[in-house]
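Subject: sequence -> structure tokens, single chain

Hey, anyone have a minute? Need the predicted structure for the following. Not urgent.
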Amino acid sequence: MAYLLVQSSRKMLDDKTEWTIGRTTANDIQLPDQLVSRTHAKLFWQADHLYLIDLGSRNGTFVNGRRVSKQVSLRHQDTIEIGTSRLQVCLEEVSETQTVSQEPPTEVNILERLTTILVVDIRGYCELSQKIPAYQLAGFISDWSMRCGLTAERYGAFSHKSIGDSVMATWVHNNKAVPDLLNVIHCMLDCASITKDLALHHGMEHKVLIGSGINTGRAMVGNNGSGGIQDFSPLGDAVNAAFRYEGATRQVGCDLLIGSSTADQVPFIKRLQKHQLVIKGYNDPHILYGSSYEELRGLINSFI
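Reply:
Had a minute. Here:
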């Protein structure tokens, strides 16, 4: 027996092979919630396994607290979160004495690779949240995260992930990183343009700015998700440094900071202003190159 627990009622999942979930009555499972898209997600059976896929919703679909980016296989007692609704998956009868794992085992399939990490972050998010209505800011952040993620995909990123008011994208390199690094830089500049365009589109009365950090180094990459949920977030010092570089942009008053390991591969980056900074969490100073987005665009146009 298979069913969903939806607000204390059961939705049986054995009468057909797929069900749509969304805000309108046209869906098999209706969730009348403004945070839910018209057609938000779909459940379907395949080879005796129940799968869930997000259908390009604005606010995302979550399983056990993790956002779904691809179709995922569901397990007994998984929790699906869509908008403000929580749907519990029931795939089998479990005796009272049987212990059910609340968290599927972690699947580890990762390798150490040379990577470049791009972090873009909304500046002054806390201040914005006090000045802008929550629904308006949530709509902006959702669109911004999605557009930045799609831009990273267009420029060949191995993976991307939204983390609150920031987006992290990862490029995995072979022997020569230079072509990839140019894509990383163009992706960053496009994200800056996207921020400006979306702020106008959403009628933001307060200026919205982003800071960016880029770092090249070795990191562990691969699927480190749990159960049927894939998570390709990189792990390692190279990732931490990229976040620290973005944070340091406020310290030096620039839009972006690029690490020396990246600049070594793209020499024209060294024409930007050089900074020697002690980064939080590190003992030795880091050599970084910073500028505004406009200055970097001008440099690229004159150099390439």
